[in-house]
Known about the structure:
The protein has helices at about 15-25, 45-50, 65-75, 95-105, 150-155, 175-195, 200-210, 215-230, 235-240; strands spanning about 5-10, 30-35, 55, 80-85, 85-90, 110-115, 120-130, 160-170. The protein has about 240 residues and is α/β, with parallel strands linked by helices.
Amino acid sequence: MILKMISANILHKDDMLNLIKCINSVYQISDEIIVVDSGGHDYSTILSYYPKVKVIRYEGDFSYRKARNLAIMNSSFDWILSIDSDEELMCGQEDKIKRLLKDNSNMAFAFVVVNYYRNGLWSNFPITKLFHKMGNEILYEKDIHETVNYSLKRKGIIPSIEGIYIHHSGYLHETGYLLNKQAQYLKLLEKQIEKTPNDAASYWYLAVSNMALGHTDEAYRNIEKAISLEPNNKIPYIFKARF
């Protein structure tokens, strides 16, 4: 049997405690961990405690797409587990992941990301988190709400949705921080739509940012545009129902 080894890729900017929690959650299942740093931190303590960890410094204007692809390019192994520093792989799922790689012929898997909110509510959404990089041919596209799904689709690969869960704590910040982040996302998404005007996903994410900022009418226009672009896609209907 061919041993399938995993490179965990983590994007990191601010909170060191969250980063440590993230590393701990993937340490057992990963053969190496690539941390892409865009915050200029000192990682000497982490590197001394976690020998699997390598840190890559991100230089220049930040792009999620470029940062994730930088991690892929610096990964030693073919299987990429993509996760953010404010996320944690739910404990006890290592055997499930090993069985996926051993028993399944698919080359990409979506895990269920569970988002937690300050009001006690939560939501979940499947996101492609584990995939074979195919000699660095599978790369992220779009500078905001980046995805490998387009790259996979061109290879005829559709990620299977698995019952493997990731906790996401990014929405537990103070309201002012979250609103500022959505305002930044709004600008990035508007630029993204200029580049890819027929991308439905950019419109439904734009709708989410507009709704979070209280731009209700604009959010509904965005979601209707997403539906018109991909009428058979269930996802924009789900966003609309949540509104």
